[in-house]
């Protein structure tokens, strides 16, 4: 991912195993993933691709309402507010 980001930019597609995987890295392109409709991004494909990694019922098993929750929680303003908590947990 680091090499792809460095050489190809914040949105790129690479072959991974038997699939082509598109990476959207950074605040300018990540919203395209979270706001995509089912016609633009197949939630089923994303979910099925990730089941072996995360197991059933984890993150990608949710639908539109929960994706909106993630979208709000991962906005730059919100992430900045989490830093003190992250730092405190890391120091424990």
TrEMBL record:
Coiled-coil annotated residue ranges, if any: none
This protein's record includes keyword Transferase: yes
Enzyme Commission (EC) number: 1.14.13.70
Record-level Gene Ontology MF annotations: heme binding; iron ion binding; methyltransferase activity; monooxygenase activity; oxidoreductase activity, acting on paired donors, with incorporation or reduction of molecular oxygen
InterPro entries: Cyt_P450_sf
Membrane-spanning parts: none
Entry superkingdom: Eukaryota
GO biological process assignments: methylation
Keyword terms of this UniProt record: Methyltransferase, Oxidoreductase, Transferase
Enzyme superclass (EC): oxidoreductase
The protein's name in its UniProt record: Cytochrome P450, family 51 (Sterol14-demethylase)
Organism in which the protein naturally occurs: Monoraphidium neglectum
Top-level taxonomy: Eukaryota, Viridiplantae, Chlorophyta, core chlorophytes, Chlorophyceae
């Amino acid at each position: 991912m680091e090499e792809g980001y460095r050489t190809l930019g914040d949105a790129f597609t690479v072959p991974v195993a038997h699939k082509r995987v598109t990476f959207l890295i950074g605040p300018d392109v990540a919203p395209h993933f979270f706001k995509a409709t089912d016609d633009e991004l197949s939630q089923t494909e994303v979910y099925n691709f990730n089941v072996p990694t995360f197991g059933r019922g984890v993150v990608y098993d949710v639908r539109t309402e929960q994706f909106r929750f993630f979208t709000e929680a991962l906005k730059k303003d919100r992430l900045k507010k989490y830093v003190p908590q992250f730092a405190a947990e890391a120091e424990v």
